[in-house]
């Protein structure tokens, strides 16, 4: 039986940051599930840069069904966790069920991949204190406030925590995460 990986997300997550790891990890042989506040069709978004804008723009992206609600997840059944970015982490960090899940992964030192605004979730449970991370560059102050040492790099690995800035960094992010996964939770 293949090791299970959990992706936690919600509406307004960045399409590429959910679907790329979902497909890449399945390609590698892992059983990947997506959890959200409830079982429903999620509406993802696309963030991109347009000339003349000071920040990214947001457009509707793909839709995708959530396999599970956060309240249905048994973290003991999963070998690792993926936390995509987009706007979803801004409101998901207030979900007590999700915070319990995240804490379970960090308490057992399971591999965690986070990208873009995803580290807002790990910051909400105190999971970044004393860690080296990267995130979307506009979150540098948030990461420092959470007690992390922020690096503006494609990917930062700190033990079992693998972080990346945004979807342009996917290849290094998943390569490093798969290195951690193969050591801690190999495909069987």
From TrEMBL:
Domain of life per record: Bacteria
InterPro entries with a match to the protein in the record: C56_PfpI-like, Class_I_gatase-like, DJ-1/PfpI
DJ-1/PfpI domain: residues covered: 4-178
Protein family membership: Belongs to the peptidase C56 family.
PANTHER family, A to Z: DJ-1 PROTEIN, DJ-1_THIJ_PFPI FAMILY PROTEIN
The protein's name: DJ-1/PfpI family protein
Organism (species): Streptomyces crystallinus
Organism lineage: Bacteria, Bacillati, Actinomycetota, Actinomycetes, Kitasatosporales
